[in-house]
Amino acid sequence: MYNADTDITMDELLLQKIEEKKKRLDNLRPLSQDALQNLLEDIRLRHTYHSDAIEGNTLTLQETKLVLEEGITIGGKPLKDHMEARNDAEAFDLMMDIIHAKKELSQEIIQQLHECVTKGILQNPGQYRTSDVRITGADVRPPAYIKIIPLMDTYIKHTKEAQKHPIQKAVYIHHELVRIHPFYDGNGRVARLLTNFYLMTEGYPIIIVKREDRQKYYQALHKADHGDLSDFTLFIMQAVHESLQYYLSSFIEEDRLISLSEIAAFSPYSQEYLSLRARQGKLDAVKMDNVWYSSKRAVKEYTKSMR
Fold this sequence. Notes:
The protein has 307 residues and is an all-alpha fold. Helices cover 61% and strands 3% of the residues.
């Protein structure tokens, strides 16, 4: 077990990249409201799809879009999957409303988000569990249910008072909630919303834990359960870095995301080489729907570093 005062070591080179990108994003403020609204609508869809898919929801990204925007029921897909998509999108909207209202994190907010995520699915949405549980496949058992309220009191206190870098606190906020496991179900969805609630209040963009990173995500959380936060910290840092790159792409032409196949057409590098350097973390790139994207700025900086 650890608390918010535990040392959470960050990759210095990656942190430098994150802070440089955040500074560029901050210098653009106030952001164009029209462009920001379009960006948030896209992120709302992708956050909903990926957060649900992480938990086993079978809707595709396009099906999730149809459910949310057209109210369509997808044939052959469980009713529960449709409810989860609608609930998670509404919970995303609730999170944004809470941020705009400048409310501080509280147990009430956590329970409101959970109620939104699980209404119509769980018998008592928004209520803490009233019995002990075991998590399938996990070798660490969540705390006894009678400890939940004092543990959540401590969780809120540490979240507000710990003197840590925002990313370190985001790591704590996410992992500690799933460690306490205050609800019977929906803890992961709520943790991802709370992580974004906190990051946005600190001026960071929304991060998305992607379906294709599910195994890596759970393995990192498993190590964190045993006190080793290194992998999970790196996971969150990479998500923040990708999200900053995605935001900048929407506001700066030189940062606009382009597929590596397009970049290969005007750069001295082949698509295969660019893909390799992206996987190695040498080229700033983002992977979306199994396609790698980078930018003219990133390629220019990579070329410069190779001289």
